[in-house]
Amino acid sequence: MTKETIEAVVNSYFINMAAMNAKAWVENFTEDGVIYDPVGKPPSNVQSDYEKFFGLLSMIFAKLELTPDNIFIVDNGAAVKWTMQGVGKNGNQGVAEGISVFEINENGKIKQVSSYWDDAAMMAQIKGNL
Mean of the per-residue pLDDT values for the chain? Predict the structure, then answer.
């Protein structure tokens, strides 16, 4: 698999999440794709849980920007340092940074994403509980 293929699927993941385009986002994954977001919480099966996942995002955020700052690709995997900026439905803003580790199959689909970040700190900013 080429570096360009991996970079394209990783960028599609971030672009479609920020756009809250659930249908296009889920197309990046294998049928048995799993996401740990954040690591430490139970995994989500992407195909069966994506509507719930995006439902929660759309309930909380009026606007979401997700920028892959650096993408490091080795073999069929990538580690991405990213920045997220969000505006809550209440108008409060939040910023978070994290690292997501992607496992990509030989067909260019994501098998697993493990995201390391402090979602509680982001939610505290959005809720105004700093």
Answer: 96
